[in-house]
Please model this.
Amino acid sequence: MENNSRKVPTFCRICEPGCGLLANVENGKVLKLEPDKNHPVHKGFACHKGLTFTQVHNDPDRLDRPLRRLNQRQDDKGDFQAVSWDEAMADIATRIQAIQAKYGDTAVAGFYGNPTAFNSTSTTALPQTLAKLGSRRVFSSATQDCSNKMAGSEAVFGTSLLHPIPDLLHSDYFLCIGGNPKVSHMSFVHTTAPMDKIRDIKKRGGKVVFLNPRNIESSTPATGEVLLIKPDTDVYFLAAVIHHVLAINAVDRLHVEQYGKNVEGLFDFVNRYSPERAAAVTGIDAVDICQVAKDFSQAKAASIHMSTGVNMGRQGTLAYWLLNMLSFITGNLGRKGGNIYSPGFFSISALGKSSVSDHYMDSPLGKIRAISGVLPGNLLADFIDAEHEPIRALIINSGNPLLSMAGESRLRQAFNKLELIVVIDIYRNATGELADYVLPATDWLERADVNSLGLGFQLEPFAQYSDAVVAAKAERKNEWWILARLLHELGMAEMPESDSPKAFSGMERMLSASGLSIAKLKAMPSQTKVLAQTAPASVFEQGVQHDDGRVDCCPAIFAEAIENASRIYDELVVEQSGQLKLINLRTNYMHNSWLHNLPALKRGIHASNPLWMNPRDAALRQLQEGDTVVVSNVNGEITAQLGLDPKLRVGVVAMTHGLGNVQSHGMKVAQASPGVNVNQLLPMGLNSYEKLSNQSHMTGIQVEVRGLA
Ligand SMILES: Nc1nc2c(c(=O)[nH]1)N[C@H]1C(S)=C(S)[C@@H](COP(=O)(O)OP(=O)(O)OC[C@H]3O[C@@H](n4cnc5c(=O)[nH]c(N)nc54)[C@H](O)[C@@H]3O)O[C@H]1N2
Ligand SMILES: Nc1nc2c(c(=O)[nH]1)N[C@H]1C(S)=C(S)[C@@H](COP(=O)(O)OP(=O)(O)OC[C@H]3O[C@@H](n4cnc5c(=O)[nH]c(N)nc54)[C@H](O)[C@@H]3O)O[C@H]1N2
Ligand code: SF4
Ligand SMILES: [Mo]
Model:
């Protein structure tokens, strides 16, 4: 190795495992990323997306300088000019002040996307900036992803930040609902090599069951079978499983009495859904439902996990409630091998304790909630269109709402009414194409970080620090700096230093709770400290935040949703048998809307996003593989290539989200194989999200499919 080449330990910040990597750096350039085989937890596990991140880092399409729009937003292609940070900030500040003077403080809103979660110094920067500007109009990808879990935990555990994870290392039974660990590497549980852990359950003589409308890649003879459920019906499945747990007298009464309250309300609810009744809407045999109940309650230790496939249904909060209840009443919550609380280097559950957001508040669009401070994403366009107190400026950080949220056409119309759009990103993405300013952010090889996203979620808890592997290229800046610089321009903050130690002051305080500091982590191999797991019962002792310390088994705030469940059941049970339902399909060749500029991921069929259909449904419609089909419903219409996928349940069609880069002129590889934006088919507006949680309805969407005449 030459003298000027080094291997720098760092970690991937694309998805939740946060895999340990070694960056091969030569003359200030990252040449290659490789798995860190000596990482004490990851031990060399990493996937091709993390390892090809050098293509993102070195991409000629990356943003290097602030860009100012010169032409009208209505024009198909933005005409952008590079300007200095001083110029950009002065103009943005002046425009914000003018908009607030004309329409009021709340005319400025923000949207933060998924990658903010992976940037420990900037995660909360945008909501904090807006608060200083006098606006609480915050939107986020959370309402497309997981806000049902936040709302569910807040009601059941008294904190939006307690999400007991499946203790896969010690489970004898694992029920995995609406997730595909092999492809997506799990969400709300951070674990390296999840498939190894799932296979080990079976190797130990245990059992794994998936509940999914598709025979997913995670299901193999070495793991377990899929129960092929009809989309958006999981809540009835879970209710019926608990119903049968009661029927076979498998409730751990002592455990429930010791730690719970309002259990009668839960029992009343599940009593409405016998396995036979649930079978009629879920498509899962009553016998199979009863078997799950039996296996779950009789296993030495059973764990359960649900992910976005259920979150995105209409009743994600109730489903999450029932998931936690199944674990709780069978004595598996707070049991080794069951679902446990894993605080990591700092226990965050108390930070999610909230009394305010229990309530609905008045808005120009009626009564709504803010879940962890976030408003319903599906109302963003309505807030812009509103007659009273409209939104007129939108700051977007690490998000791509045009492609990640419902209703691109409607969003485009609404965005055209905005007087200022600022996009902070690493690319000029589809949304950036509409912006007045596109501001260049650093990527994770260019910034220091602590793996704080793992707090509460890590199966094998550890703290890791990474320096910036290389200096930020050109004019790229960390997001906290960009927003602090804006506040400075508005006279609300000091001029930020370029590398401010203040950015880590909060993190240092949290690390000190475990006797750690960044300096200490830096001195450790792989800059990582492996932490001890807390006792399983800490879920009650440290986790639950209700004032009486008890798990609320039937929160009063669920009353309306519980009644809705009956209404939706009645609709489902009479639904026409041929009705097609659309679900999402994540693949190894995409990551939401943003790895689409990587030549390495644009391969074969995955360069685009076909509509996948079971061959039987295709035959019924006289359609063949490769046909061009029109997929439509009341929300919109798109054209796609047909792909056949026998893994899908009959009656279910699937598409990959995040594509549709026809107008993404700033991302040439993505634009060359643009794909189709499936979110044109999702509902938006007042009746398109779960009122309890603001979670958008995105799975089990009714569609029609016909061949293009
Ligand atoms: N139909 C359908 N729609 C979905 C989903 C689905 O399953 N089906 N999934 C939903 C889910 S789970 C999520 S999380 C959302 C995601 O929705 P969003 O967060 O809106 O979108 P992403 O595609 O993650 O895009 C993130 C943007 O951040 C940029 N970026 C990447 N790294 C950085 C960085 O370090 N700094 C900055 N400033 N920018 C960065 C990328 O270039 C990209 O433009 O999409 C949701 N939409
Ligand atoms: N390769 C890759 N990895 C990713 C991402 C990516 O885009 N690509 N995105 C990252 C992000 S932001 C997230 S949030 C995580 C998500 O991680 P996961 O939640 O594991 O995501 P998916 O693989 O989409 O799994 C969702 C599953 O739900 C199933 N499903 C759909 N509708 C229903 C339903 O009504 N009921 C049930 N039971 N199942 C249903 C789908 O068939 C699918 O298998 O993945 C992360 N990792
Ligand atoms: S699994 Fe996720 S965190 Fe690990 S290397 Fe792949 S993309 Fe990165
Ligand atoms: Mo997500």
Observations:
- The mean pLDDT is 96.
- The two ends are 62 Å apart (CA to CA).
- The pocket of MGD (ligand 2) is lined by residues 15, 114, 145, 177-180, 183-187, 211-214, 216, 229, 231-232, 234, 307-310, 313, 583-584, 586, 588, 590-592, 699-700 (CB under 6 Å).
- The chain is about 30% helix and 20% strand.
